[in-house]
Amino acid sequence: MAWLYLGVAGAFEILWAFAMKQSEGFTRPWPTAVTVIGMAASIWFLSLSMKVLPLGTAYVIWTGIGAVGTFLLGIALLGEPADTLRLVAAVLIVAGLVLMKLASPH
User: How far apart are the C-alpha atoms of 53 and 92, rounded to whole Å?
Assistant: First the structure.
């Protein structure tokens, strides 16, 4: 269950980051509310995963899911650039996440 919780935490991480962009500096109420609720849910699920997973593993994977997921949403929905160096950087982050998972004792 810990890995599932971590995946859900990462999904909420992506959600709140995207909603924060849409909030336009917290001037739009609904995206602002989604940001705050998404942050709370993300941290709550992260804390559940940390009951079993080591701190470093859980935190690195949580931030990595959020970083790569948000990066991909920016490309897909906001028209952000998908140049070669940015894509290589994202692939390297994913490779690091896979290695961290493989190295995890749980």
Answer: 22
